[in-house]
Amino acid sequence: MPSSTQPLDMSRSRVFGGVAEIYDAARAGYPDALVSTVLHYAALEGDRPVLEAGAGTGKATVPFAAALTAPLTCVEPDARMAEVLRRNTTPHPHVTITVSPFEDFRPGDTRYGLFLCATAWHWFDPDRRWNLVHDALTPGGAVALFWNPMGVRDPDLHAALAEVDRRHGLTNTPHAALASAYGDTPGHWPGMLGHWPAVDCAHDPRFTDLRSLRFREDTHYDTAHYLDHLSSVSLYAALPAHRRAQALADTADVVTAHGGRLPVTRCHDLFLARRRT
Ligand SMILES: C[S@@+](CC[C@H](N)C(=O)[O-])C[C@H]1O[C@@H](n2cnc3c(N)ncnc32)[C@H](O)[C@@H]1O
Question: Which residue has the least CA distance to atom 26 on ligand 1?
Fold first, then answer.
């Protein structure tokens, strides 16, 4: 979920295919502790199937597929993302891929024991997504929605990057927040108001056992890796080529001037809920 108090430009949901390979190479994945927490919570019975929507190139799919024996169905609307996903899941024959928006996916007679969504829930129709998940799950089935926003650890570097963003008219870039601005509460991100899924779900009597968890990780990017990361972000991918090139070049200059290293804290924030029986 992009950290924003402004409405999300939904047309940006369709830009990922144009940067599929760079996305796969540069984007962070999700920690093993998140995967095991989700599977422990879901407590899948037998080989009850699992559904993932907005699977992208498989950043979450691959670790879940490795930990599961149950069939895992991935729904991904972009054929170019799905092609990389197919390549990444070749060692996992229990993964099947459906190229479709989640809103058009029909589960048929299958009822899933777990619904997964990594960094994609914000792209689904907000008026339909909870109904679609409810209808796809078996009673007692689990929902796991997660994102991995980050904050910049060095205040001077943060200020210099903010100046580049201001010059280019960019808001809510991945480096827009200071690491210290993240509190301890999962789903509370700087500048974000009311978008955490617990806010909707708390008023939906069809779901119960709501939990929010945070897995925190300190890491860093070098300049080239950070530019690739930014290139895979919809805000940048949707810019006209000359504006994108200029913004990336100016950002690179700032990171290079700070020793070519961008230290960040990444928060892997996880929301869990369960369909009532
Ligand atoms: C930021 S990427 C996340 C990909 C992957 N889950 C990950 O964690 O790296 C968002 C993905 O959601 C997909 N997406 C966008 N709109 C969608 C929709 N309506 N239904 C299903 N997936 C959608 C995009 O094509 C893209 O692959």
Answer: 56
Average pLDDT over residues 220-224: 98
Check the CA dihedral 91-96-102-107 and report its sign.
negative
User: From the CA of 242, how far away is ligand 1's center (Å)?
Assistant: 25
Strand partners of residue 249: none
- Specify the pairing of strand 50-53 against strand 112-118: parallel
Give the pLDDT confidence of 148-166 residue by residue, as tens digits. 999 999 999 999 999 999 9
Confirm or reject: Cβ of 122 under 6 Å from ligand 1.
no
SS3 79: helix
Cα(216)–Cα(178) distance, integer angstroms: 14
Distances in whole angstroms, Cα of residue 206 to Cα of each of 199, 213, 236, 275: 14, 21, 37, 6
Q: Are strands 112-118 and 150-152 parallel, antiparallel or unpaired?
A: unpaired
- Specify the CATH number of the domain 10-149+184-219+267-275: 3.40.50.150
Cα atoms found within 13 Å of the Cα of residue 182, Cβ hemisphere only: 28
**Is 235's C-beta closer than 6 angstroms to any atom of ligand 1?**
no
The three-point CA angle 43-45-51 to 5° equals 80
Element (H, E) at 26: helix 20-26
Cα separation, 14 vs 125, in Å, equals: 14
Q: What is the pLDDT of residues 95-133, one digit of tens each?
A: 999 999 999 999 999 999 999 999 999 999 999 999 999
Question: To test ligand 1's pocket by mutation, which of 3, 9, 16 has the most ligand atoms within 8 angstroms of CB?
Answer: 16
Q: Where are the domains of the chain?
A: 10-149+184-219+267-275
